[in-house]
Design a protein that fits this description.
- By secondary structure, the chain is an all-alpha fold.
- It has one domain.
- The chain contains four helices and no strands.
């Protein structure tokens, strides 16, 4: 009796292993998809934030003027601009290189703290 059930048991046990392996592969695939989506969302959020900030700073010609303007934003609570600065600082500071130097970027990102 045991000899008849052993091949069936081994077959089921083997199939269970394949099913578990398949589920793990699918799970890992979905984790990679999620990570790619998360990176894409961060990139797009930073780009949108940069568009808001750069438009608001279009008349500022020097890094000093930019810092002064941002100080006003943070002091007066201009949420669209300050939220955008925070988003850029958190997600992709290199976007700021289009309008200011590295030292100014560090200063600006410290303003939000």
């Amino acid at each position: 009796m045991f000899n008849e059930k052993l091949p069936k048991f081994l077959f089921l046990f083997g199939m269970a292993g394949w099913i578990v392996a398949l589920l793990l592969v699918l799970k890992l695939s979905s984790v990679n998809d999620f990570e790619r989506l998360e990176a894409h969302v961060k990139t797009k959020a930073a780009e949108n934030a940069f568009n808001i900030v750069s438009q608001a700073l279009q008349d500022k010609k020097t890094d000093e003027d930019i810092v002064k303007q941002m100080e006003v934003w943070f002091k007066d609570g201009w949420t669209a601009q300050t939220g955008s600065v925070t988003t850029i600082c958190d997600n992709d500071r290199s976007l700021f290189l289009n309008i200011m130097n590295e030292e100014t970027i560090s200063t600006v990102c410290r303003l939000r703290i």
